[in-house]
Amino acid sequence: MTMPLVAIPVVETPDLLLRGYRESDFDAIADFGCSERARFVGGPHDRWACWRAFLAGMGHWVLRGYGMWVVEHRETGRVAGRVGMILNDGWHEPELGWHIFDGFEGQGYAYQAAYAARAYAARHQGLDGVISYIDAGNTRSLRLAERLGASFEREATLLGAPCRIYRHPTVGGA
Amino acid sequence: MSLSLPSPRLTTERLILRVPEARDIDAYVAFLTDPVRAEGFGAEPDRPKAWRWFAMNLGHWALHGYGYFTMEWKETGDACGMTGIWNPEGWPEPELGWVVFEGYEGRGIAREGAERARRWAYEDLGLATLTSNIVPDNARSIALAERLGARYERTYRNVHMGEDMLYRHPGPEECGA
Fold this sequence. Notes:
Shape of chain B: globular
CATH topology of the domain at 11-127 in chain A: Aminopeptidase
Radius of gyration of chain A: 15 Å
CATH superfamily of the domain at 11-127 in chain A: Gcn5-related N-acetyltransferase (GNAT)
Order of helices and strands of chain A: EEEHHEEEHEHEE
Oligomer: heterodimer
Strand content of chain A: 25-35%
Number of helices of chain B: 4
């Protein structure tokens, strides 16, 4: 009665595991989503909205065959963020997105996670030369995009909110 | 990790109950973005939010092993509503829910589908009890809950819907499960 619907692959980096979802990840995801840190990704949200986003993150893999991974910090086993490819309804094209949770900034984890996700998407998901949507006020993310070699493409509107589109270089599929 | 989705396919005289598929999205969006029709269920303001709801339901299936089925009208193959078991964050306990899409009311679809989903929840999921949460002014749903043998238990505050009435269904034995 059960069919494997989509395999969420595990991707390893020196410090991180990108992996699928567990119910126990929800608290960390809600802590981020309910906090001021979520102001650049449409938040902060209430816990109910975080729950919806958590489940929708899983459903996205079912519908698209790709999505955001949970980023696990290997040394501690803690959830450090989410990263991966997003194509929700209303998006112009698949986007590389990253959320880094409290306590995991400033250590190069976001770069590591985004770099690995981007490479995986190019090689295995047919998504290369992708975009990232970034709020003009999100200086950390703007810096990370540039460090990843992405360049400003244009101003855009996402779900009614202004944002910038950055374009990543093609990194080579297999 | 593999996201596994159970794939029950239940049938009734006129309906197929199956896990939602991408081809159902437009019917869901039409329902969810209709503020009148979806009022008692939780309407969504636009297509992107309704799409996220659709994805959320699939995530609910993946996480819990149950969620809302698409009710498919056998004769045409069209999605004519949803019924299933719902238990998101903050819910008092798993509930049996149902909605019928535009153009399919008045045919007894909700009752036919919900009865089958309830039996599945008892027989296949092994649930021992079931509730339905109904907003106080949803007379249609209250009438159906009562026809299904459910009884009013209490009024409480739902995280999503606000003031909400909790109905309790007859248990597995009473339903012949």
